[in-house]
Amino acid sequence: GFATAIDGTVRLLDGSLNLSAGWMKVGDEYHNPSNLNLRGGTEEVKAAGGYRIGSSELRLEHDRQSFGPEQVKRQRTAGGIVQGLGSELKLDAKVAADRFVTGGSTDESQAGELKLSWTPMQNLTAWTEARHQFNYSGNIVLPDHFGLGAAYQIIPGISVETQHRRVVPRDTTSSYSITNLGLRTDLGLGTQAWGSYQIAGGVNGSQNAAIVGLNNRLRLGIWSFNTLFERRFGVGDASFADPVRALPFLQAEEDYWSFGLGAELLPQDKPYRASARGEYRDGDFRSTRLFTLTGDVSVNKSLAVLSRNEYLWSEQALADGNGISQRTSSLWGLAFRPTRSDKLNVLTKFEWLAESNPLGGGVLGANGDEKRVIGALETIWAPVAWGELTGRYALRRTEADQLLENDVTRNLTSWADYLGGRLDVNIKPWIGFRGETRLLIEHTSGSRRYDAAPSLVFVPIDGFEAQFGYRFGDLRDPDFAANGGPGLFATFAVRITETIFPTTADFWRPRFGQN
User: Fold this and answer.
1) Contact between 374 and 395 (Cβ < 8 Å)
2) What distance in Å separates the CA atoms of residue 140 and residue 133, rounded to the nearest whole number?
């Protein structure tokens, strides 16, 4: 699937007149598990303009959204004035008209919205806001609300922000509230990243994944921090088309609160670095606990030790009760890369992991306890500038206690060998060939499974890579198989030249978690 977004801003009359517009379209087949808001079949058009006269600014804005699979359309037009009240106060008053089309019904409303901001010092802003509906037809999609918040700018471009909003429908029994606390990062060109906390479907579509913001780290000397908090309560009482619900609406809204804290030790000109991250989420449908500790030490420019340790606990509401799964893993690697040549790179890995009722399925089953030990050797050989050959060998031992009927436990053991290879050939600077093959030999059952994937790689511009190919074979495995299964596939990636990596740890760090 494809998603496209275009935004533009123009300033005229010496900055007095500001015009902006944007368009976004998400294809029906597009799916991004790390951002639930980007749902297939979504289209958005927006435009805004502002004219400044002294301390006042007249603003007019319009946006329109369509969610095809859900048959939901919404449209909003707002106009008002932003008025400065002295040097510290600013009043934003507007009248808004909203229109929602849900299936065959249409809901419309007109309301007044008010926001008063107070800036007692340059890096501190506090505000209060409210909305009151004048009239409506159909259902009340956007009820009255009031809220308050504050933001403190730590350094230019990064601020800590907290906000609370309480929605009060005319039926007060269905009120709800949302509280957020986190970092907001100004990425430039009018783009901001809010450090929200989400639990998505997972990178592989079956396991839970916790996503903490985007580029919202705070750097203080050799330390980097990330912290956030979110609370959603009673949002399930909101109207089906209310934008406060998780887009695009067709999912159960649970009450939950979540907290995340991360810290990184990033000393300059030192041979080591480390990071730790903890996340806690408690919800009606899904709860998770996650702790990750990573680090690496460069013995010298050619030799490095890397490590990643993780604990994940997840509880999810199922039809027959709550399902609880746990995963503990420890991964260690020794990387070698000669300083005088980048033709050979070697990584030796040792991994131990233990799982209980894995949501994504294990090697010997999805119910019960399973332990796996994996030893692997990976080499990347680039003898010529136009070609690269990658080889990988791994040995895995799996032991599982499988739960049968009548609470009977059966012990299972499996030994397996894995062989993998990849060949990259640059035909021209803008096109190349890539072939991948994998073979898994399971000794206990005597089975052999494989897959192969020839593909063409296009580099239309420096730094961007598009790969198109076909994958066939019957290899399915949580450690050694590619996601997606057989058939046509496409991959888009950013290509980074190896010459920017000063040490072997820098080269292997982004590849370390890949099996």
Assistant:
1) yes
2) 9
* pLDDT for the residue numbered 193: 44
Question: Could you report the per-residue pLDDT of 428-457, keeping only the tens digit for each?
Answer: 888 999 999 999 999 988 899 999 999 999
Instruction: Find, among 166, 101, 81, 71, the residue nearest to 128 by Cα.
Output: 166
Q: What is the pLDDT of residues 273-289, one digit of tens each?
A: 888 989 888 888 888 89
pLDDT value of position 364: 80
Work out the angle at residue 510's Cα, subtended by the Cα atoms of residues 393 and 314, and round it to the nearest 5 degrees.
90
Output the 3-class SS for 401-423.
EEECHHHCEEEEEEEEEEEEEEE
Distance (Å, rounded) from C-alpha 493 to C-alpha 39? 21
User: In the beta sheet, which residues pair with residue 388?
Assistant: 424
Element (H, E) at 507: helix 504-508
DSSP 244: T
DSSP state of 202: -
DSSP state, residue 252: P
Tell me the C-alpha distance between 347 and 351, whole Å. Answer: 13
Q: Any idea of the CA torsion for 318, 320, 322, 324, to the nearest 10 degrees?
A: -90
Q: Which amino acid type is present at position 401?
A: D
Residues with Cβ < 8 Å from 224, sequence gap 6 or more?
217, 218, 263, 264, 266, 275
- Residue among 430, 410, 422, 419 nearest 477 (CA): 419
pTM (global) more than 0.85: no
Chain segment 175-190, per-residue pLDDT in tens: 777 776 666 655 443 3
Contact 413, 421 (CB under 8 A): no
- 55-59, 98-102, 329-333, 422-426: segment of lowest average pLDDT: 98-102
182: which 2 tokens? 């986190």
Q: In a 3-state reduction of DSSP, which class is residue 501?
A: coil
| Integer Cα distance of 434 and 454 in angstroms | 6
Categorize the per-residue pLDDT at 495 as very low, low, confident or very high, splitting at 50, 70 and 90. low
DSSP-derived secondary structure for 10-46: EEETTTTEEEEEEEEEE-TT-B-TT-TTSBTTEEEEE
- Catalogue the E-assigned strands of 138-285: 144-155, 158-168, 176-188, 191-194, 197-200, 209-212, 218-220, 223-233, 256-265, 272-283
Helices (H) and strands (E) in the chain, counts: 1, 29
